[in-house]
Amino acid sequence: MAYRIFIGPFVEMVTIPDLFVQTVWEGFVGGVLYALIALGFVLIFKASGVFNFAQGIMVVFAGLTLVGVYEKFAAFGFSGMLAAYAALVVALAVMFALAVAVERVVLRPLVNQPDIILFMATFGLTYLLIGLGETIFGGSPKVMIAAQLGLPSGSIDLAILGGRVSLQMLDIAAAVIAIVMIAVLAFFFQYTRIGRALRAVADSHKAALSVGISLNQIWIIVWFTAGIVALITGIMWGARSDVSFGLQTIALKALPVLILGGFTSVPGAIVGGLIIGIGEKIGEFYWGPLFGNGIESWLAYVIALAFLMFRPQGLFGDKIIERI
After folding, report:
1. Radius of gyration of the chain measured on its C-alpha atoms
2. Where is this protein chiefly located (predicted)?
3. Residue ranges of domains in the chain, CATH in brackets
């Protein structure tokens, strides 16, 4: 038994390297998408100090909105790429309206309230969006309009390390889009005026207000950006598995990503996402049979729990020092 746990999997990695590369690739794609989800949490947490529990359902709601609007266009005789991108514009408008509504109805009345109050408000927002989504779009899974959006299909086979590795074209597109999105967001919030304002708000709300930064505008921008991230994530995950309310469970994989990377770090979200994505795929493939398979659903949380014992602030998080 000890051999099967501590030696056997590593021997298999060395003796069948192409299979190991295939597993790492699949984990890399999942990790990049986890990082994209985690960015939505990081942006809102940096701007308001609130952990947005509703980010997962925002992914589902954005995806359902896109598909639902496209179906309405199709019912009126419009279809194809033009209708798909028109539905994409409508979905973006809906996420902007959601950002404005959250700022006006949730954040503005609760400003300066304890963080736990704001956190519980995002719980309420979660169930509101679930009820709204089920009422408008129904509870059945929907097929993502991947082909209509121009996303590729099929696969390519590469000869690597004496074997063959199959790469799904959709996975390649998802990884490229997610990487570009992460790079754009990192540049935007690091080197633009709005990004500097966001960092000022993250440091101190009162100090930001004293130099003329509008908290309300920053919150709308950040929540809308998180909505864009949710929409892109919903498209990518939905194209891989369909759009359903079960996607919010996948979105909650951002929790261990944030624990590893740090709740306020964009680079941490990227590194944490890759660690979780690749780690859970390798764990499922090589160690999963020893535990009856299915460990991919909980292994990420075990990794995060173990990590908390050694570095609770995360790889890129700031140490909290209290003087007494």
Report:
1. 21
2. membrane
3. 2-308 (1.10.3470)
